[in-house]
Amino acid sequence: MDKFLLQQQVLERLAEDLLQAEQAARVAHEMATHEENIAENKYDTLGLEAAYLATGQARRADAIRQAIAHWRQFRPLPYDASKGIQLGALVCLVGSDDREQQLFLGPGGGSMKLTSGTQLVQVVSSDAPLGRAMLGKCEGDAVSIEVAPGRQQFEVLWVH
């Protein structure tokens, strides 16, 4: 799998998300400022609610812009066994149920599923619990994370 192609897919998906967030912010802003939504009394809050929504969508768009900037600057390096798993690693984990999953460890803001050929690849931020747990691990090492019902254990099958 080509890490740079995966990175391009992440950037394309983030660009789509940004367009949607910007459109949602515009619609909410128009609704908040439309003359029909001017409050007639203290209980008439449609305009105020739309303003809150517009602010939230604008913040979401800003967060996506930041993620795009991080992913554009990101340069995945080849795996170095002496350092273990680092940002940019492509990792295959197997769980206690013998189910394999392929993960691409990247900067924040890119949590999504991608396809590479016939393979499904989950993009994981190094800030996520699983991402943090993988840092520094090598092939054959155990990775463990705490989830709501208990602890999940994985084994690192391979790293690229």
UniProtKB/TrEMBL annotation:
Residues 117-159 form the Transcription elongation factor GreA/GreB C-terminal domain. One of its GO terms (molecular function) is DNA binding. InterPro entries: GreA/GreB_C_sf, Tscrpt_elong_fac_GreA/B_C, Tscrpt_elong_fac_GreA/B_fam. One of its GO terms (biological process) is regulation of DNA-templated transcription elongation. It comes from the Bacteria. Keywords: Elongation factor, Protein biosynthesis. This is Transcription elongation factor GreAB.
